[in-house]
Amino acid sequence: MKSLYFDLTNSGISGDMLLASLLGLIPEATQILTNLKDLKNYLKDVAKLELNLITVKRMGIISNKLEIIIEESKIHRSSEDLSAALEKFLIEKDYSNLAQDFARNVLNTLFKAEASIHGKLIENIHLHELSSVDTLIDILGVTKAIDILGGFNSNFSFYCSEVPLGGGKIKSAHGILPIPAPATAKILEKSNLFVKGGPIEKELVTPTGAALLVNLHPKFKQFVPSMKLIKISYGTGKNEFKTFSNTLRILYGGANSNEFHPLSDYVEEVSIIETAVDDVSGEILGNFVTILGKEDILDIQIIPSITKKNRPGHIIKIICAPSLSYDLILKTLKELGTLGVRFYSSKRVCVNRRIVNEKIDINGKWYDLKFKISFINKGEKTEIINVKPEFEDLSLISKETSLPVKEILFYCHNAMEKLYKNIL
């Protein structure tokens, strides 16, 4: 079980930068570059193609840099030209099936973005900057490096920090455009990546870099995830800035086995809001719970306590989505008059649940009752956690039948057993 963490704290991402970083993780770097030089034979009008991996120092950090020398005619190749060259190279250079699928997806992502922006069919788009042979160098080189690392196996994980896009404007074949370029923005749209502007007024993310990253489907992690580090590699691109190192750091390691536990799919980030009060009446606390019950909170608890002045008090704990933290803190301050509120991020495991309607027979009369079924998926199998009748329905039936809730539970057993067997 392995994983890669793309740390873009001090960089954006381009195809050559990503490739340079990945080549620092594997011993087959020279062989990959040797094969990529053959691309001059797969596209017309490429007179010269040289590739070298060199090291440069950026703000004191030794980083890999891909040195590319290309002599090609200034023509705009079609999507068919690039696709045909890619297909031929993938087959003749023995790329695995999963690697082939990835490379095709990356190229198609670029095509679809351009077609969507210009309102054309893929076969009619003009690729301009993307038509150069270096687009294929980036895609095929990154694909091979990731395949060597085992990145296309099901037990391999990818993670990524926030992605800085840069800012300002860029000159393109279509004129002056805002950063991020339209194609880059389209590729990032609806991806699971977190992006931000800055920190400098330059283009930090290219369409090819975005397409490669998006198709790896990395999970967002603000900090490096739990892993046993194997190797760290730095890569940089052609652009050098005075106040920004522009070095992409990749951390390669053995993934924490918990990442592949069935419960790992049910982990979510929550915020916990907490305050202690010793001068608030029971009426105000009860009203506060009522008010928060109308908000989109996940849970609220009021816990009796003794404060530092030996006064009886209460600890109020609210669990909510991180995006609601400040609104709920403000409401807590106003409603309770407390002077301070603690809040922090936490993780919770929240399993699947389903509400199912069933009828139960009590002394010859049928009653409608909702059951909450909680479960987790383990591959293709389902594991039941609990089957439980909703208490509100039990209470209504209790009032109607004058039977204790505990006794009504006995009448629920057949329905619970039926639901348990049906969902497995």
Write up this protein.
The protein has a seven-stranded mixed beta sheet with strand order 2-3-10-11-1-4-9. A hairpin with a 2-residue loop joins strand 2 (46-58) and strand 3. Helix 1 (15-23) packs across helix 7. The protein folds into three domains: 2-260, no CATH class; 266-349, Transcriptional regulatory protein pf0864 domain like (Alpha-Beta Plaits), CATH 3.30.70.1380; 352-423, mk0293 like domain (Ubiquitin-like (UB roll)), CATH 3.10.20.300. The protein is built from twelve helices and 18 strands. By secondary structure, the chain is α+β, with helices and mostly antiparallel strands.
Choose one word for the global shape: elongated
Classification by helices and strands: alpha+beta
**Main sheet?**
7 strands, mixed
**Number of spatially distinct domains:** 3
Q: What helical percentage do the residues reach?
A: 25-40%
Whole-number average pLDDT? Answer: 91
Distance between the termini: 29 Å
**Low-confidence residue ranges:** none
The number of E-state strands comes to 18
- % residues in beta strands: 25-35%
Question: What is the number of helices?
Answer: 12
Radius of gyration: 29 Å
Order of helices and strands: EHHEEHHHEEEEHEHEEEEHEEHEEEEHHH
- Order of strands across the main sheet: 2-3-10-11-1-4-9
